[in-house]
Each structure stands twice: as structure tokens, then as C-alpha cells.
Write a structure and sequence with these properties.
The chain is an alpha+beta fold. It has two domains: 14-117, no CATH class; 120-228, no CATH class. The protein is built from five helices and 15 strands. The protein has helices at 20-26, 58-66, 119-125, 143-161, 186-199, and strands at 14-15, 18-19, 30-31, 36-41, 47-49, 52-54, 70-71, 74-83, 86-94, 102-116, 131-136, 170-174, 178-183, 203-213, 219-228. The strands form five sheets. Strands 12-13-11-15-14 form a five-stranded mixed sheet, with helices on one face. β1 (14-15) and β2 (18-19) form a beta hairpin.
Length: 229
Amino acid sequence: MKFCPKCGATDKDFYKGFCIDCYAKMNIFADIPSKLKIVRCKDCGFWWYKTAWVEDSYQNLLKMISEKVKTVLFDPRFEVDLKGKTTVLKISGFADERKKIPVNVRKEIPVQFEEKTCGMCLKFSGKNYDVKIQLRRSKTFDAVKYKKVSTLVKRSVNFIMRKDERARSFWHEEKKEGTDFFFGFRQIGESVFHEILENFKVEHEKSSELLGIDRDGRKKIRVTYCVRI
């Protein structure tokens, strides 16, 4: 008759000479970091993950932690719960390939936040922009068309924002002459400008301003598109 040398049980399943309960308690199935460091933008709350700023979401937290965990469990599954400055990590899986020995691991991990400011917030807070689109009234001003173009700009930015976080660096100002739309990044502003041209027949002009030279020796140019409706 088999018996567990640890607890003496005889009525349980066995694995590598021990009952499954004792085997699960005796072994370390996951190497979990003692703490987690997250670089966080102090203005928008986004986190720095690998090479980009990402939103502070459950999925991103799960990626950050699970990539730092080493486990020998079969079919491991992770759950995380961020509570203040502590993350509760739960790992479930199996100790054996036949999935007869379920194992659950739980650990509280202290989280250290390092506050920084992301590039978009730097641009936004400093009112720095690469592209400005000016909506102005032409001699044959069409109020309905003007409103449609203005709405298109805002909708385009919201749509781009779903895929490109740089679109968050955007704001607009209402003036007597019309509306000015500011874009912190050139690619976003030019994309919206070309969308205007694709959807509406408008008068437009372009002007450029040299701001200086960046660290890589490239010219820093600010572009203004004047669109008359």
C-alpha cells in the first residue's frame, strides 16, 4: 500500500512519491518578483511599457507582471488586482502534465510608481504643436459646410486616438476669425488636413515656420494650413 512519507495519507493520488496535496505544498512552482516598478505619467496616468506609453488598464498590468514571472506549472493562468500600491497576483495551473494536481499561488507584490511626464503631455501642457489648421470664412461663406468640416476634424482625431495615442495631443481655440485646431504631432495634423481635402472642396494655403534644430540635427518646422470655407 502506498502512503505519503510527509503526511501518511493512503487514500489520495500520488505524484513522485508524495500525495498530491503534500507535493503541491512542498514545491515552488513560480518565481515571482518581490516588487514591481511602474513608470507613470503624472499628468495623464499612462504607463511606460517596453517602448511606448499605454493606458493604465487591467490587460497592461497583467502583461507587465506575467512577463516577469517564471513558472513550471502546466497551463498557467494569471489574475491581478491593483489595490493602491499593492498588486495581488493569483496563478492557477497544474503541477503535472496530466493535469491531475491543481495548484494555486497567491502573492501580494508592492508596486513602486515612478512619476514622469510623457511626450504628449509635455507638448500639451506647454502648448507646443507641429501643425495648426485654421478654419476661416471665405467670401462665399457656407455656415453649414463650416460646421461639417469642424465636426470632421474632431471626429477624425477621436478615431485616430483609438489606434495612435499621439492624437491626444490636440486642442482647439475659437476666435473671431474662425477656429484654430492644434496638433502636437505632425503626422496626426497632416492626416486630418488631407481628410478634409478628400471630403470637401475648399480653398487652402500652407505656410511654414522654422523653430530651430533638434538634438539629431534635423530642422524643427511648424506648419499652418489655412482652410477657407
